[in-house]
C-alpha cells in the first residue's frame, strides 16, 4: 500500500472544466454547466484503494449532510481499468449502488481530468466556492487505515461550514494521503 500525498495546488486556482460520463445515470456531466449555489466538492476516488475504503462511510455521511445544504459533490475514478479492473465503470456502478452514492461517479478513462486537477492520490479532495475557485484541497480528516484517529471528516466539514457561513476557509490545510493514481503506462507522472 503506497502512501502518496496529494499535491497542494494554490488556493484560488480555478476548477478545470470537463465533461465525463456518470456511470450511475449514464448521463454526461459537465462541471461548468450547472454550478452549485454554494460550492462544489470534487473527489478523486476509486474502488480498490484501502484508503478510500477506509473513509467511504464518513465520505458518504458528509455528502448526504451537505448536499441538503447546497453543496454539490462529484467523484471521479481515473485509475487505469486495464491494470485495475475493479476500478472500471461496471464495478464503479456496483460500488455506488452498494454504498448509496447520491452524487455523480464519473469515469476519467483518458486520465486528462485527473491531470488537469493535478490529482495525485485516492482519496484526493478539492473544494470550490460558487465561482469554482479552489478554497480547500487536502484530507477528509486525520483517520488512516491502521491509526486510531476518529473518522469525523473534521477538515472537510470545517471547509464546508466556512463556505456555508460565507467565511474564509482556513489556509492551514493538510494533504490527503492515499494510494497513487494508477496512471496508464504511456503517462509519466
Describe the 3D structure.
With 189 residues, the chain is α+β, with helices and mostly antiparallel strands. Helix content is 24%, strand content 22%. The chain is built from 4 helices and 10 strands; from the N terminus they run ββββαβαβαβββαβ. The strands form 2 sheets. A 7-stranded mixed beta sheet has the order 3-2-6-5-4-8-9, covered by helices on one side. The chain has a 3-stranded antiparallel beta sheet with strand order 1-10-7. The longest helix has 18 residues, at 50-67. The chain is globular. It starts with a strand and ends in a 9-residue tail after the last strand. The mean pLDDT is 93.
What would the keywords be for this entry?
alpha+beta, single chain, 7-stranded mixed sheet, 189 residues, 4 helices
In short:
The protein has helices at residues 50-67, 89-99, 112-117, 154-164; strands spanning 4-5, 19-22, 28-30, 39-44, 71-77, 105-107, 121-122, 124-129, 134-138, 177-180.
